[in-house]
Amino acid sequence: FGSAYLSRLAPGTTIASHHGPTNARARCHLGIRVPTRGAAAGGAGGVSPACVLKVADESTTWREGEALLFDDSFEHHAEYRKRDDAECEGEGGGGGRSRVGPTRVVLVVDLWHPRLTRADRDALGVMYPAD
Q: Which Gene Ontology terms cover its molecular function (predicted)?
């Protein structure tokens, strides 16, 4: 609990399905560098995600500068679909899209579940001591 780190994911890789130890925390992902795959299928406009996070039965994607909050006690996995045309938002001087390195980078921060009392957090600190 209380950890923060950068998670990197290379093209064509998957973080296998896993789950956290308890629902006493919320996991926050902040998109730092999030590759996309160009125009969405079907001509609908927008972009097709190159990187996908699936939590339980719901899939979502990261966006640069935006946070995702989820309960990591549910089974989840991440996938970066390999494509040669991956781009990242917000890189380069023009404020648009530009070609950059393909690695997906997300800041991961663990937070206490908002409904936990101070006594709950103290008890969990004993059960899950800091390293």
A: dioxygenase activity
